[in-house]
Amino acid sequence: MNILIIGTGYVGATTAMVFAESGWQVTGLDIDAGKIERLRQGRLHFHEPGLEDLIAKHVRSGRLLFTTDSETAIADHDVIFICVGTPSRPDGNADLRYIRQAAEDIGRAMNGYKLVVTKSTVPVGTQEQVKAWIESAQRQPYRFDVASNPEFLREGKAVEDALRPDRIVIGTDSARATRQLRTLYGSFRCPWIVTKPRTAELIKYASNAFLATKISYMNELAKLCDELEVNVKEVADGMGLDPRIGPSFLQAGLGYGGSCFPKDVSELVMTSRKHEVNLRILDQVMEVNQGQFAYLLDKARARLGSLAGKEIAVLGLAFKPDTDDIREAPALRMIDRLLLEQASVRLYDPVAALPDRSSYRDVTVCSTPEEALLGAEAVMLCTEWTEFAELDWAQAKAFLEQPNFFDGRNMLDAGRMRGMGYFYQSIGNDH
Length: 431
Ligand SMILES: NC(=O)c1ccc[n+]([C@@H]2O[C@H](COP(=O)([O-])OP(=O)(O)OC[C@H]3O[C@@H](n4cnc5c(N)ncnc54)[C@H](O)[C@@H]3O)[C@@H](O)[C@H]2O)c1
Ligand SMILES: O=c1ccn([C@@H]2O[C@H](COP(=O)(O)OP(=O)(O)O[C@H]3O[C@H](CO)[C@@H](O)[C@H](O)[C@H]3O)[C@@H](O)[C@H]2O)c(=O)[nH]1
Fold this sequence. Notes:
Belongs to the UDP-glucose/GDP-mannose dehydrogenase family. The chain is globular. It contains 17 helices and 14 strands. 47% of the residues are buried. The chain folds into 2 domains: 2-195, Rossmann fold (3-Layer(aba) Sandwich); 211-425, Rossmann fold (3-Layer(aba) Sandwich). The strands form 3 sheets. It has a 6-stranded parallel sheet, with helices on both faces. The chain is an alpha/beta fold. It binds nicotinamide-adenine-dinucleotide (NAD) and uridine-5'-diphosphate-glucose. Nicotinamide-adenine-dinucleotide (NAD) is lined by residues 6-12, 29-32, 35, 83-86, 98, 101-102, 105, 120-121, 151, 153, 155, 259-260.
């Protein structure tokens, strides 16, 4: 079997690497010629630790090819993974236009049996929709199967997560598709779930929404911790020792961002409304998350008064460390609000860049953390890059006009920072 991956973003590029690592011949297809050109040279168009080296290795060996020629690629491959984006539409529903395009491309170009596997995160019922789109575009009635195989990797940890997944979920009603996928994933040692396509699709949304719920719960709890003079990290440590709760996703902070949680929670809410089963808990999860960054701003205002004309150093732009992804990044929301309140922003992030420089003319983009701190009246830490934990904060204080520190990721130790003379506040981590 040879494998075609449609879409070479985070998921597509990682999936291509995974199958090449397992010894399969893989082709990555994208409509973006610039991305394909870079990938052909073994270079990635986004930041993901460890992935570029593995892609380059397989490009050199010839096991991994890249193309923009959709028709030839589809005709030449037996198994096709759809890994295109499914962003949110303004009304909160998932936008399936890229999935539809990919399905219709497959239908038009197919020349024999194909196994089509949807790895993109798609609303419940999409597998049936993909079948219909393929069928309606077919020139001849070739047989095909469509399976759902949701992806659970995290950005920043994509290589590790994709090569050693916790589980493989396959949604299909076809024995042939199940056999082929078992062969493709033959070298993986992890639990398998083979189920109905709809169940597979829902497992993905239910997982992301549950993790988002954990985060919003901890963010609410952190505010109570501030009132009670209790440290939320110690509370999380105590809770996490209970195996029924587990230690992960209990970090309070500025809220969740990224290309997945915000859109996936929103889509699940929309699905539940369509079926008149309103998942009300998720409305609260989203509301808490929307307002979370403002909690830190309130603390800054309480200390500094009006932010107008104040120089604020913002450390971190990416929605989380080890990625350059700024989709739905709380830091961006923070910067927008600071600018609205007429503060001057000095920004530093090790890899992420502002989306559109012309809308952010008033932001001074700095190439070191020290440069961002220079003359600032407050620091707002928005992404927990390791570099910030390793900075010599005693020395760095000299760059600041005022040593006010607002830690949006509870990264630093309150006692140590205060010992160095900082006015330090965080999100439930002050005591
Ligand atoms: N980013 C993650 O960490 C992650 C993890 C798990 C699941 N997912 C899901 O996987 C899907 C892809 O996410 P992503 O972050 O990789 O998206 P992305 O936006 O980074 O990449 C999508 C790619 O698809 C390409 N594309 C669009 N239409 C195409 C077409 N018709 N033919 C060929 N290429 C086409 C785009 O040019 C782009 O390069 C989404 O549904 C997402 O929710 C993402
Ligand atoms: O305790 C925590 C854990 C995470 N976050 C935030 O939550 C967001 C998402 O983080 P993470 O889940 O690590 O990153 P993603 O790459 O968005 O991965 C999520 O979304 C992917 C796309 O669906 C899924 O595949 C992954 O399983 C799922 O973890 C980030 O803004 C984090 O800062 C917190 O605030 N507190």
